[in-house]
Sulfotransferase (Oryza sativa subsp. japonica), 340 residues
Amino acid sequence: MQPTSAAAGPVPFKDIAAVAVARRPVAEEYGDVVAALPSRLYPPQQRWREYQRRFEPRAGDVLLASLPKCGTTWLKALAFATAARGVYPPAAAGGDGRHPLLRLNPHECVPFLEGIYLDEEEAKLDAAPTPRLMSTHASYPNLPASITEDDRCKIIYICRQPKDMAISLWHFMNCSKAKTSSLSDDQWESITMSLSDVWESIREGAYLGGPIWEHILGYWNTSKAKPDKVLFLKYEEVLRDPTKNIEKITEFIGQPFSDAEKEAGIVESIIELCSFEKMKASGANSTGSLHMMANEYPHESFFRKGVIGDWVNHVTPEMADSLDKFLSAKFYGSGFTFAE
Ligand code: A3P
């Protein structure tokens, strides 16, 4: 489906025709980078290093950043629905019921930069009309310098209370394991995590391979120092007051709602389109799977409960209390607190 109005983007990443491009040999162009890598690093990480050098931001680009299981999928839907409302009007703005989010999973609309480079879809990103929406799980210091050192690409970060994040990851691993066929039993065995493994990975600073407090504080501190560069959202606050947070997004990306749009009910329309119930029930998300970051994920695995505080059903008060205390020491003095 092609956009119909004058505004060019964003468009769903999946709808951009694949563009054939010859990959430049790593050894020639990035020989020094590759030579500096530890020998155990394998090609995906080499490609991420290449990408850190090569990524070229455009004015209007918006990067959605998060730790896994903190509401990435939802933020993708909300940001896509708001930023693309000129191209794809939601129902209240005269939409014809063929909104991309009704036929595509949000991850098919907004790609992960990590996935683009792993899956060698860089040329597709180059072909995407401006403005572009992208996402990442990378920490702030691990972003390409072209993103952090100039103002063309804005960043929206979403965090979530870590006890719910951990429960969500644990369910996600089990659900994906049951439904994904791209990994062998041995490969699954090697990445299987019990609930206490997930809990411990947070304390050990190994959730997504790094300390979550550093991930969060990298974006938090930048949002305080440069509020025009990073908008910092909390999953719980978006759930409790979606209107206020969607308005924050539109103002941050320079597309505030007009009075006419508000009167027409466009905010309510976007909330409804992106609501947990609607997205989970949609055929686009209840069937099929998506290829992402070199793996295959069932669409439905991104929609479980969508609530605040499900951790009480899974861990003891002692486990919760000990993680809370551990993390509050890590954030001490930063001004950052999780929303409960
Ligand atoms: P739960 O497992 O607690 O239900 P991510 O997108 O970063 O992988 O995060 C997934 C979490 O966000 C899951 O949490 C999922 O159910 C929840 N989620 C997905 N879509 C949502 C939506 N539209 N509204 C609220 N929560 C949503």
Observations:
- The chain has one domain: 49-331.
- Residues 66, 68-74, 164, 168, 171, 274-276, 279, 302-306, 310 surround adenosine-3'-5'-diphosphate (CB under 6 Å).
- Residues 162-179 form the longest helix (18 residues).
